[in-house]
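Backbone shapes recur. Consider a single case.
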Amino acid sequence: MAMPRRHTAPSTGTPAAAEIPEDLPAGLRPTPGGTPAIGPADAHRTALAHALLAAERGYAVIPLTRTKLPAIRSPHRDGHDRPGTPPCRGACGRLGHGVHDASTDPLTVRRMFAAAPWATGYGIACGRPPHHLIGVDLDTKNGADGRTALRFVAEAHGFPLPPTVTVLTPSGGRHLWFTGPPVPPVGNSAGRLAPGIDIRGTGGYLVGPGSLTTRGRYVLAPGTPRRPAPAPRALLALLTPPPGAARRTPPHPDPYADPDTDTGTSPQQAAALVRFVRASPRGQRNARLFWAACRAWESGLGPELAERLLAAALHTGLPADEARATLASAARH
């Protein structure tokens, strides 16, 4: 989770053209002379308006800077708290505790934005009632292909991906919103479900649509549903592993699966792991091989799938020595 740090008001200089998203309304586009029609004050007011609308719909929010960090500095930044005391999560009554400040109360939201006039975006706290929001962040940076990775995961575990609220990021990625159950809580992870997929759960937040960052604006995808869909039960099972599950042993049965038909990793799931590795683009070959090998070991199929995964990696052009070293690293992980 992003942690608070010191922030200053954003520059009033003209941003680079790449920072102005194409889908901005005409009134927010740069003027012919090159001066942006949207200044810091306009960006702040826009973020506040979107945050208030989200709060009205039951999503707890906090103000964010253009770098997507909580906009209010911690009141404990100077280390005045007594050594050995647990971190404050807002019990002191002051603002500046990151996602722990998130609120649906409009007066509190306005108070937070008033305390951070440099805020140009807002974050939506995940895991909070009533929605218990789960964010699936599909990345496209550094050669990752989160959308393809999620399709492979869904295919491997046999669940459809329902239409749900989708937010387009300035870098070309997507945030999928799902609702979850109150318990067990879904945690935060980066790349564990698959390379290019990060999960935002309890204690994390999503950048809300309408936020302006240094890279551009977050916007709702065209035709996106008005409400997030419930997370598929098989996906929830992947995000909340049964307690006490040990590596290199068959996992506990999927709590949502039919005990008469589901006995662990199926041939379909094993084949999907191999296809996932075979489809690796340059820059993701090692990461995908390592991830698939780890999932194979977790399912008790590490030795059985090792040669098939090696062959899939060699098919992508990964050198044999490098592929074998990656497989060995996954076996020790």
The first strand starts at residue 61 and ends at 64. Confidence is low (pLDDT under 50) at residues 1-37, 244-265. Residues 5 and 104 are 23 Å apart (CA to CA). The longest helix spans residues 40-56.
